[in-house]
Design brief:
9 strands, single chain, alpha/beta, binds ligand BJW
Length: 253
């Protein structure tokens, strides 16, 4: 069986011989797990909440309680969500490819929960906190259920350990992602609107270094026109079909 989504023969051949593959994921890969994306008109978090009000450092300083409650709500959604066939297909890909790097913009931790081992989290993690004053990760909090929680070391405010607009990405993680992009033979951009930099530059770096760049997204993005292959479908459908057609013995069908 070939699976429900046809994969171009040239891509199948390219992947069968590839030794180095890098994957960039965005909110779309978790959409089929029930986690809202950022920019989709119907379901996007930011259709109901203004990012200017909630996901930036200035908003946090102005109203830390509101911002924490928003993150707590998102944590609740993610705790109830399960990894989907798209996440699971990337676990199989990690097992099949000699040098495989999974780079995610997502803060939901679903790749690790699916069983992926090497995950570069560009924008942090929803379930970690850091001290606003010390800019250092914190284990636990002051344990008095205060919102926002307080740093157990200095008593200052804790904030989510995520990357807001205008903030630097973790340097070592971004460096590793850039290395993976420029050394990849095949680079996938999956479930991202390809609008937020510097993550959106990674597929372009891969392309400039000679990689085959594959986009998987039901909607066109700024990357679609330059990608080697633009597969317009849901990640939870396209990725299992791709695994089935490239590595027939690992077929979920
Ligand atoms: C499906 C699907 C299914 C649906 N299957 N697909 C260069 C040019 C222009 C601007 C800049 C630039 N460099 C930097 C900037 C500024 C800014 C930026 O990029 N702005 C642009 C918007 C123009 N970047 C920054 O500020 C970054 N920092 C920085 O560059 O620092 C340098 C610096 C700092 C200070 C001084 C000097 C220099 C930081 C960016 C941080 C982004 N943070 C967020 C929030 C994280 C925390 C949180 O979760 O609350 O990260 S914003 C938000 O966007 C989140 C996401 O990770 C990120 C990307 O979104 P994503 O994943 O693409 O989601 P969507 O919703 O946009 O798209 C979903 C897609 O899925 C859609 O296409 C659907 O079609 C698709 N889909 N179902 C497959 N089933």
């Amino acid at each position: 069986m070939t699976g429900p989504f046809p994969i171009p023969a040239a891509l199948i051949e390219r992947l069968r011989s590839a030794q180095r593959v890098a994957v960039l994921t965005g909110a779309g890969i978790s959409a089929e797990s029930g986690v809202p994306t950022f920019r989709d008109a119907q379901t996007g978090l930011w259709a109901r909440y203004s990012p200017q009000e909630l996901a930036n450092a200035e908003a946090f300083r102005r109203n830390p309680r509101l911002v924490w409650e928003w993150y707590a709500w998102r944590q609740q959604i993610v705790r109830q969500a399960m990894p989907n066939p798209g996440h699971q297909a990337l676990v199989i890909m990690e097992q099949r490819i000699a040098t495989f790097t999974l780079i995610t913009q997502n803060v939901d931790g679903l790749h690790r929960r699916a069983g992926s081992h090497q995950v570069l989290e560009l924008h942090g993690n929803l379930f970690r906190s850091k001290c606003l004053a010390e800019d250092r990760p914190v284990e636990g909090d002051s344990e008095d259920n205060e919102v926002p929680p307080r740093c157990p070391r200095c008593g200052g405010l804790l904030r989510p350990d995520v990357v807001w607009f205008g903030e630097m990405l973790p340097a070592a993680v971004l460096h590793a992602a850039g290395q993976a992009a420029t050394h990849a033979e095949v680079f996938f951009s999956i479930g991202t609107s390809a609008q937020v930099y510097p993550a959106a530059d990674l597929p372009l770096q891969a392309l400039a270094a000679g990689a085959t760049v594959v986009e998987i997204n039901p909607q066109p993005t700024p990357l679609s026109a330059v990608a080697s292959f633009a597969l317009h479908g849901a990640a939870g459908v396209v990725l299992p079909a791709l695994i089935a057609q490239v590595w027939a013995e690992a077929s979920p069908y």
